[in-house]
Structure prediction request, 85 residues.
Amino acid sequence: MAGAGEFGCMVRESGFRERGNVMAAAPNQVRVSLSRPEVTYFNLIKFSVGDDPLVRVDPLRELPSGAFLVALHVKGSRKRRRLRI
Prediction:
C-alpha cells in the first residue's frame, strides 16, 4: 500500500509503462478501495482527539452484537468534561 487518504481511501501504486508519447498504467496496477464506515469514523476520532497527549484511543473492537466499540482513556476529569465523555 503506497498511501492512505484522510477518509480511509487506500491507494496501491505500481510502475507505469510508456507507450509512445502517452503514459499508460499497466493493467491491474492501480487499486483504489474505500474503508468501511466504522473504520473511517474510528480514524477520524483517532487522529483528532487521539493526538492529545491526555487521551489514549484503544483499537476498534467489534462486539458480538455487531456494534463497534471505541474506548477512550482520558487523564483528568477536566479534560473529560471538555470532551463531553
